[in-house]
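Risk register update: the risk of archive-format incompatibility is retired. Evidence:
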Amino acid sequence: MTLAELKAEIDALYHQGCRPEFEVQISAMTGRLSNNSNIGINSIGRGIDWDGNRIIIQPSESLVEAEFAKRYFAGHRKDDQKVRLGR
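Archived output:
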């Protein structure tokens, strides 16, 4: 998604009646049993260096909880798990 596409989506939400105080969240694989597995946003900004042409959204917490990831990757090769978890 580009910045222009994001702006168009947000503009459309305003026209649909979403109010400025609505919290923006990110859908996440938390493995929680509750109906809310969304994560809040800590910040948004322009990347630096090789990410200078990107807008980076920082979640307020990890998008994949460790216990969920452990269960998800059970049976996968350890090398695959390290790559997918960014280790």
